[in-house]
Amino acid sequence: MNGNIGRWRLRARAGALAALSVVGVTGAGIAAADPAPSFAALLRQTEASPRVAILDAGVAQAEGLADQARARPNPTISVYGENFGGSSPYGGFGRTETTLQYNHPFELGGKRASRIEAGRAGIAVARARGAEGRVAYAYELARAYAGAEIADRRIALAQDEVEEATADLKVARALVGAGKEARLRELQAETELNTLQSALEAARAGRTVAFAELSALAGVETPYTSLSESLLDRLAARPATGPIDPLASVVVRAAQAERDAVERRIVVERKRAIPDITAQVGVRRLEADNATALIAGVSLPLAIFDRNRGNIAAAEAELRGAEARAAVVRLEARAAASSAQALIESADLRAAAAEHGLATAEETYRLARIAYEAGKSPLIELLAARHGLGVARGVILDAAAARLDARAGFARLSGRTITGDMLP
């Protein structure tokens, strides 16, 4: 009996480590796949995943735009003719004047330098957003990894409850057969068993979903069917945590980089309103005189209608928004940093309390079953004790999940993985 009660512990702890074949909703097996590696190894493998590729593409895009910002405006060459095809004496081509002209624009007011600075700021933003995205991805991957492990353990718990309910049903049938219990008690035990079997099927479906989500997040096409590491057990020990500087978090740095980039774009828009000049030099062929002459000139646009005021106003408004967002991010980071340690301590206390509650529930069920087998207590007390044991086991898993969430949140604020490794 004690073995039946305590078996769930062995299964729960081995659930994430055993190479289990995947079980579908209908109970049919699916083609086996390699188990997911350890979390640290899986995170390294995801460097080629689509989620990381999106971040790298953002940086590459910013670098391309910054490289383009260095480009100077292209010159133009024009060829045109004058004084031909008209009335006498310009009816033919005898008085044609043909001009070959080279036009070279010159940017004034430091436009190119401002574009280059804005391009560099854009790269800084992309890299900061990339670092933020990698930290967020590591956080999501850790939660998905732990979610798959929790789903494994929920199946083990559900299987234990079904086995215990089956054993209780056998006892109830024996008592009914001996005339010590009414037929109603057997029906109650059967109903309880059917309910627990339904819960087991739901747990199996949840496991399939959890492993599919982990596989999709990791960027693999064939879903994982098992895990090679218990992340929950690894985080059971209290880690060494210290204060977090909220202003050094990747989220705050990304928001500040965005604000600085917008400020650079304002300079670009303001300088864009400065007119540029175009120098012109060319050669003109005078057919009537059988001569060639040089021409030269300068053109300057008149800033009468378009002074780029709308774009400047839009950029200034964007800056105000970026500054407000950066302020919000700083406030949220400070709040998260101040509560991160408290959340970890609360999760640890919750886990310890859950362990004590489980021990009490196990002893309660053990005594209730002894009493029921001896005919000293009704079936309803045994069912209530087993229900309490199931709840206590679920609380253990919920506490482990809460502890992982607290650790993952702390790691995200620190710019690290949940296992303490620094991200690139």
Automatic annotation (TrEMBL):
Record key words, sorted: Coiled coil, Signal
Coiled-coil zones: 148-175, 305-334
Signal peptide (UniProt feature, chain positions): 1-31
Similarity comment: family membership: Belongs to the outer membrane factor (OMF) (TC 1.B.17) family.
InterPro entries named in the record: MdtP/NodT-like, OMP_efflux
Highest taxon, organism lineage: Bacteria
One matching Pfam family: OEP
Single annotated GO MF: efflux transmembrane transporter activity
Stated name of the protein: Cobalt-zinc-cadmium efflux system outer membrane protein
